[in-house]
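It is worth pausing here to work through a concrete case rather than discussing structure prediction in the abstract. The textbook approach is simple: state the sequence, then state the predicted structure, then interpret. We follow exactly that order.
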Amino acid sequence: MNSLPSINPKEEVSKISVFIKDVFKKQNIQQVVIALSGGVDSGASLALLSRSIPKENILALHMPYFKEDDHVEDLVRFVGLPEKSYKNLQIEKMVNGIIEELDISEDDKLRRGNIGVRVRMIILYDFAKKVNGLVCGTENRSENLLGYYTRFGDEASDLEPILHLYKTQVYELAKYLDLPSSILNKPPAAGLWETQTDEEELGFSYKEADPVLYLYFDRNKSIEEIEKMEFSNARKIIEFAKKNSYKHHTPYKL
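Step two, the predicted structure:
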């Protein structure tokens, strides 16, 4: 059973394109910087940017820590970015320097992973300052509701073109955009450690999570009601979201 509404990809592309154009017009800024991971979220976001603003105004950065992702170059070729609009930056030395200085154990994979994510954020904003541009985020609604992001890391951005779409809806949009199969078929992963995948870390898939999140947050159904609709993982999914809900309320202040 899937209670999550399907999207109209053509209408979504048009709506998002208008949004992107409006942001840059209102801010009187022409340039944008985006991080590419080789996954569907950054792939769809780059494709949407390339349909909305001149490609020469886009700077796409691939910042691998473990190994380079060949899928990124598939995407760059597909979108048709000019050569000067794509950079592959090695961050291993920067990340390892911080890890060594803080003496973070090899067993503490999450702390180490978060360092890498936040180093990427620093680089993105440095390049944005250099080119007088905005940072385009690639977060989707599923990740946002689950709190599945690193604060001041992959969550940091100036505009978010797909934040209103659940992960499975992003796949619908990506298929409509005709993204390369290497992007569509790549298992979702935050890149926190070498073998990390979202599904393994979360304990459930986005296909399982999205209808539950939709029913709970958008339709105001109780966990008990959702469980009766044959979503056996409902409690686990909502408890994961509740555990991370503090991220939506910080910083706490008077």
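Step three, interpretation. The mean pLDDT is 94. The domain at 9-198 is CATH 3.40.50.620 (Rossmann fold).
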